Amino acid sequence: MTDILLLIIGLVLIIGGANFLTDGASSLAGKCGIKPLIIGLTIVAFGTSAPELAVSISSSIKGNADIAMGNIVGSNILNILLIGGMTALIKPLKISMSTLKYEIPFALFISAILIFLCLDSTIWNAATNSLSRIDGIILLVLFALFLRYTFWISKKREEKGINMNDDVLIKQRNTFLCITFIIGGLAALVYGGQLFVESASQIARHYHISEAVIAITIVALGTSLPELATSIVAAIKGQHEIAVGNIIGSNIFNITLILGASATINPLYIKGISTVDYITMFTSVLVLYVFGLFWGDKELKRIEGIGLLILFVIYLAYLLIKA
């Protein structure tokens, strides 16, 4: 019971720390004259991925590779099947041509790259699956390329008078308060991440459940809450591009930046993440792509949202049987 309470406290610290860090950094950047466009693409986008970053890097440092990897694989599956499904159920989501032509194919590409890099025992007949420092650097290079593309496409939209990031709300705060928010937010992220990982590991040991299953379910759901809130609010407001872009962008951030940084800090030797988990992650992106491009007339309809939720329930049943 104590470990469950500590898990919740850790999650609250992570999400609260991410909000304070994002708020303080955005306000400070605004005071320095940085455009809302840049703030939206970097600081605000990073904010929703900060919980995954805190948990995966803490896990990497502690040597809990299954939690680091399971957190990302689980979050990516949840983002599309659960969050995408729930969001479409609330309100059908239009998917822009840019997302269909570039972002979703890139998400498919990096998902395939991750599978190739991780399945060493299957592909190279190695003793164990791992994500080495070289693999981590490759993922970070892909993140840099994606960031470059994001700035390019946003600049084109800005030139055409289409700038989604003008809606970014930047609260004006004094410099001292901004710095306090940033330092406090970072401290909460670091401590909350350590607390969350340690309590998740203890729960797994106590109930004799693998750390991988705990990471793919409880940990992934906890760290995906910001994406869930952002996508649902955006869908209700009719900001379809933000809702879909948040889901796909988060998946790309998770693999390239978070796993890239985690593996670069400390190589990840993965034991509990199965081929089924990786394939489910890849398939979820593929299903979203097919729904948007072929069946949904560039729109994720309610019936397709139900389809995503059914796939999530099937995968969850598999995890429960596996546990």
UniProtKB/TrEMBL annotation:
Q: Where is the signal peptide?
A: none
Q: Where in the cell is it found?
A: Membrane
What stretches pass through the bilayer? Answer: 6-25, 67-90, 102-124, 136-153, 174-192, 212-236, 248-270, 276-296, 303-321
Concerning InterPro entries, the annotation shows: K/Na/Ca-exchanger (IPR004481), NaCa_Exmemb (IPR004837), NCX_ion-bd_dom_sf (IPR044880)
Main location class:
membrane
Record's keyword annotation contains Membrane: yes
| A Pfam cross-reference name | Na_Ca_ex
Report domain Sodium/calcium exchanger membrane region positions: 4-151, 180-320
Keywords assigned by UniProt, alphabetized: Membrane, Transmembrane, Transmembrane helix
User: What membrane topology does the annotation report for this chain?
Assistant: Multi-pass membrane protein
Would the keyword Transmembrane helix be found if you checked this record's keyword annotation? yes
Protein name, as recorded: Calcium/sodium antiporter
Q: Which organism is it from?
A: Falsiporphyromonas endometrii
